[in-house]
Design a protein that fits this description.
The protein is α/β, with parallel strands linked by helices and 218 residues long. It is 48% helix and 14% strand. The strands form two sheets. A six-stranded parallel β-sheet has the order 5-4-1-6-7-8, sandwiched between helices. A two-stranded antiparallel sheet has the order 2-3. The longest helix is centred in the N-terminal third of the chain and has 17 residues. 39% of the residues are buried.
Length: 218
C-alpha cells in the first residue's frame, strides 16, 4: 500500500489551463513574436517555465527565453484568480486522505513564488508535508524532484504514488520507480497517459480517494 501521495498541481489539483494559455499568449504579444496556439501551450503545461518556452520557441536564444519568462510571470500573477479553481472534490478528498494517515506532497512545474501564492489563496498549504517546484530542481520529466521528496520524507519509492495529468508527470514517476495515477480531465488526453502504464486512471478527483481507501482497507 502507499504511504506518500505526490500530486502535480496545474491540471490535477487546480483548473488553471485558461490562465496559463492566456498568460503565455499575452507574453508573446508583448514581445511581438508568434503567438502560440492553445493546443501548443496545453502540450507544455507541466514543464518548468524555461523548458516550456524553449519547446514553444526552439529557434530562439536565451535572451528571448528570459524575456518571455518575465512577461509570462507578470501576466499570470496579475490574472484574475477566479479563472483558476480547484477541480470538484479536491479539497474534501485531500482532507479525507490526510485524515486517514496518508502523507501528501506536491511536485509541480510552477515556480516557488507561484505555488506559494496559490497554496495561500486556496488554503491548502497545511495539507502538504513537502512541496517541490521546477525552479528549485530539475524540471519534469527528470526524476530529481521526486527523488528529493523521497529523500526528505524517508519513503521507499514502492510506497509512494505520483498523481498527474501529463506525460511529464507519469514519465517522471516511472523514472523514479514510483507507481503513477493518470487523471483524464487535465492537459493531456488519456490516450497519451495510458502509454505510461499508470496503476489507475481517474476521470474525477474523488475517484482517487475512493480507490486508495478501498485498498487501504483490504
Amino acid at each position: 500500500m502507499y504511504d506518500l501521495l505526490i500530486f502535480d498541481w496545474d491540471g490535477t489539483i487546480i483548473d488553471s489551463e485558461a490562465s496559463i494559455i492566456g498568460s503565455m499568449q499575452s507574453a508573446a504579444l508583448d514581445l511581438c513574436i508568434d503567438v502560440p496556439e492553445d493546443a501548443a501551450v496545453r502540450n507544455i503545461i507541466g514543464l518548468g517555465l524555461p523548458e516550456a518556452i524553449r519547446m514553444l520557441y526552439p529557434d530562439q536564444d536565451e535572451t528571448l527565453v528570459l524575456a518571455m519568462r518575465e512577461r509570462y510571470v507578470q501576466h499570470f500573477l496579475s490574472a484574475d484568480p477566479t479563472r483558476s479553481n480547484l477541480f470538484p472534490g479536491v479539497r474534501d478528498t485531500l482532507e479525507q486522505l490526510q485524515g486517514e494517515g496518508f502523507r501528501l506532497a506536491v511536485a509541480t512545474g510552477k515556480s516557488r513564488r507561484g505555488l506559494d501564492r496559490v497554496l495561500s489563496d486556496t488554503g491548502l498549504a497545511p495539507l502538504f508535508e513537502i512541496t517541490k517546484c521546477a525552479d528549485e530542481t530539475a524540471s519534469k520529466p527528470d526524476p530529481c524532484m521526486l527523488e528529493e521528496i523521497l529523500l526528505v520524507t524517508d519513503v521507499d519509492p514502492r510506497r509512494a504514488l505520483m498523481i498527474g495529468d501529463t506525460e511529464y508527470d507519469l514519465e517522471m514517476g516511472q523514472r523514479a520507480g514510483i507507481d503513477t495515477v493518470a487523471v483524464s480531465y487535465g492537459a493531456h488526453h488519456i490516450d497519451r497517459l495510458s502509454r505510461w502504464n499508470p496503476v489507475l486512471e481517474v476521470h474525477q478527483f474523488a475517484e482517487l480517494g475512493s480507490w486508495l481507501l478501498r485498498h487501504k482497507a483490504s
